[in-house]
Amino acid sequence: MREIRVVNIIKTFFLYSVRLILPHVPLNSLYFIGNFLGNILVGQKAQIIKNDLGMLLGNLSKPDLDRILRHTMQNFRKDLLEIWTFPKLNQNRINRMSCFEGIERLDKALEKGKGAILCITHFGSWKIILPALGYNGYKVNQIAANPLTFEKDTEASSHNIIMKLELESESSLPAKFIYLDEGKSIRQIYRVLANNEIVVISLDGIIGGKRMAMPFLNGTLLLSTGGASLSLSTEAPSLPVFIVRQKNNKHKIIIHEPVVNLNNGFDKEAFIDTWMKNYTRLFEHYVQDYPDHYARYLYTIRKYPLPELGYVLKLNNTDTKKEFISL
């Protein structure tokens, strides 16, 4: 417990001091700091991540798990540092931090005039898509939960400070947020799509509506059907998006073709079922190829189970009813 208090004090000091200069730090230096923090701020969550990742993927050696964990924590810290620079971002800087693959697919979708739905998960730096699109002239809206939702008296003070900083960072972006946990109407989503704007929706977050239990590697993943249902009801194309950090730390934002054609003649149930199966298979490939882009979320899943539903990801041969112990 004493070690945890010391780490919390260090984090709090950092958040009220060093963080303020981060927007002015060259990107290479920012990533050096992120790698350093990722190496030293791992804590007791390491074993949870390695245990769950080993069960999810299977056949991973201890050296493999140690390597993936190290890269996972480095990526996580770099993601956070980048988010805290959002208030000082501009088009030039975000284009040095990210690039698109398949942006023509988004442009083609928008040519239909019905908007576009970009379907993401908590894989890689999922928030980077908002400034990458917004600063390059796209009208983008994120369906989300307000970060302050995750403020809790039982959390360390540094955690609650981080949630406030995330809200501050989000508010600075050239993007709009539809916080459904604050009672925002679904009609607002339909309205922005009718205006031919982009809606970004996460399929594995706490805001999701109806979910389907999908076989996912060595487990079962509760994914929202929101992307498929919204696409079907609005005729807005739904495109899977995955963000991969390159070796030079630049994010490649990969926009895929729709996993199901809207004009295939399926009825609603068949369309959603096929959409979910195709999306899940694509997601599996990314997690297998880049496990360090997903492993940190395994800890978050255990820390924030869904009301009534429990963990988003339920691993085979594990007790999914076991209480999460805050570390």
Write a brief caption for the model.
This protein has 327 residues and is an alpha/beta fold. It has helices spanning 2-16, 27-40, 45-57, 62-84, 91-97, 103-110, 129-134, 157-171, 186-194, 226-234, 268-289, 295-303; strands at residues 98-101, 116-120, 140-144, 176-179, 198-202, 211-216, 219-224, 238-245, 251-255, 313-315. The protein is globular, with a radius of gyration of 19 Å.
Which key phrases capture this entry?
disordered C terminus; 327 residues; seven-stranded mixed sheet; alpha/beta; single chain
Write structural notes for this entry.
With 327 residues, this protein is α/β, with parallel strands linked by helices. It contains twelve helices and ten strands. The chain has helices at 2-16, 27-40, 45-57, 62-84, 91-97, 103-110, 129-134, 157-171, 186-194, 226-234, 268-289, 295-303; strands spanning 98-101, 116-120, 140-144, 176-179, 198-202, 211-216, 219-224, 238-245, 251-255, 313-315. The strands form two sheets. It has a seven-stranded mixed β-sheet. It has a three-stranded antiparallel β-sheet with strand order 6-7-10, with helices on one face. β3, α8 and β4 form a beta-alpha-beta unit. The longest helix is centred in the first third of the chain and has 23 residues, at 62-84. The chain is globular. Residues 319-327 have low confidence and may be disordered.
